[in-house]
Specification:
The chain has about 500 residues and is mainly beta. Helices cover about 10% and strands about 30% of the residues. It starts with a helix and ends with a helix.
Length: about 500
Amino acid sequence: MMVKKKIVVLLIAAVLFISTAPLAFAETPYVIDSGISGNLSWSLDSAYTLEISGKGKMGMYSNTYYNSANSIFASSAPWGKYYSEIESIVISKGVTSIGSYAFSGCSSLKSVDISDSVTTIGEGAFYLCKSLTNITIPDSVNSIYTIAFMSCYDLSSVKIGNGVKCIESQAFSNCTSLSTVKLGNSLNSIGGYAFEDCRSIKNISIPNSVMSIDIGAFQGCTSLESILVNEGNLYYLTDDSGCLYNKDKTLLVQYPIGNDRTKYTIPDSVNEIDFYAFSECSSLTQVDIGNGVTIISPDAFSRCDSLSSVTFGEKVQFIGENAFYGCSSLAAVDLPAAVKEIESLSFPDIALKDITIRSRKCSIAEDAISLNATIHGYTGSSAEALAKAYGYSFVSLGSLPECKHNVEAWEWTDGNMCIGGTTVGICILCDETIFEKRVALGHMDANGDGQCDRCNAHIKDETQSKPQQSANSGSHWYDWLVEFFRMLFNLFRH
């Protein structure tokens, strides 16, 4: 009986031992490699956690091939040989910067812990870290350099600390899963293409502190439905559709291209439509360009494949390269007489059947317009010359009409508005130099200090404070009123 009891006890003990053995012998991570790099130490343990420790700046590294056959890039840092195995990184207290390309190409990296001693994240520091899912950048960081997190395909959430002042160009470009971005309240500038092709972002809020948003910062953000600018921002604003403008609404910076609107009207206050402002917007079918717009920047409407109607304002002068490239639904275009330059591939799509160019003189790139299109223009115009040179079909609008001169800026060649004289300006329609005589309006001294408020001349006596008069003094006031109303008319006309 005692023997049986001993056997049972031994069996129970064996079962308990076997069941708890994995815990008892659970492997504690141990260091598999380590070294010194500049002022800092590094160590990699068996769980593939890389720790950087010490005090001071991290070194500057480069992006180099580790497998040239498959075009695999990784950091030239001493830990770079583990690019496919590192799963987590800890930047310990005391480290003050993350060096350029320090962790580039770490394809298995899932988490990063950055201490609050770090002040800069270098160029390409986490470039092509494909498995990284989220990042929190502490308040101690003031700059995120170019392509720092570019092509982190699984990155879905970014929280940028309140100390960051600058996000440089392409810092988060091509982070295709990025859906949540929180910008810090000290951010001053967002670099060119900073969030380019972040195709999962739906909304973004621009804080008060932002003073500069560079070209294409949100280009290719095809899910972007709205951009919100804090009301206290002194440099930017958004309208009811979530479209981003500079503060005085003279520059249209970015339309939210994920918005489902089909029609948009650009206000007359706008002078310029920025690079990529509407690029890849698939919902818009109609755009009306306001009468204040003079510049349509390169790629402004490129790849808007549903866009079928564009109304151009009367002051458009410049249409940039690729401006309407890929607008495969745009069959007809009517350009105003003010257009002076049409750059390469502005209207190259075969869907374009008719383009009307009302300019007299216009610089038109030889590949600006689809060869499938018929050009409509005046006989003797630049449009006709292009058609003849490159074999386009041409339909004449008739003889060149007499130019209704439109001068936007006048300069005095002699005299001034107080004593009269001559002004000169260039017509924006025909480039002709225009001279106009101006009737004297007389000096104005509202303060009574003996100095004219308009031209700063010293007024010596009463006769100088009055407009010049002809022999028939009554006719002077008639001339003065005519000149006054003529100037008002020109002001509102332009």
